[in-house]
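User: Here's a protein and a ligand (guanosine-5'-diphosphate). What would the complex look like?
Assistant: Let me lay out the input and then the predicted complex.
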Amino acid sequence: CGYIGLVGRPNVGKSTLLNRLLGMKLSIVSRRPQTTRNSILGVQTRDDTQFIYVDTPGLHGRQKKALNRYLNRSAVTALRDVDVVVMLVEPQRWTDDDELVLEHLRQLDRPVIAVVNKVDLIPHKEELLPFLEELAGRYPFREIIPLSAEKGQNVEPLEEVIRGYLPESV
Ligand code: GDP
């Protein structure tokens, strides 16, 4: 059992990773959209692990400030009680939207694991190193894990790390 938050700007690979994690050991027993905009999705699995999936509310149509404030609050509220947050980013690409996601996370006092997704697009892995260092300087992430959700590369180590934060393994 436990609660896992999955966050990141749109298109970073959250649903691909979610499916990958669910496909490994867990199976979905219910999907319940928690907002009408589908920006927050709870997935409950058979072993009672809950994934709280947040598609970074507030990043869509930033001109609508009041709505954004509301969505930001809902996102932060949804994540308040998770055991661990997984924040996805793309290699070599830190954007204002990623910074906004991080702002949400700074409001929480939860352990955060950074996932650098889509590393299959980087042919020479050593090219990643400066980006990983830069990322480590942005926030006290508990771990930084490069992986490819689509190709299934390095996903198991992430699962191991996540398990370490769930109540049953303490
Ligand atoms: P979300 O909006 O954060 O849920 O992102 P999606 O999971 O929908 O993925 C966005 C796009 O990135 C899709 O076209 C995916 O096929 C692609 N994608 C996701 N993970 C990877 C990956 O590990 N490698 C590559 N090359 N593409 C990926």
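Summary: Strands lie at 2-7, 28-33, 40-45, 49-54, 84-89, 112-116, 143-146.
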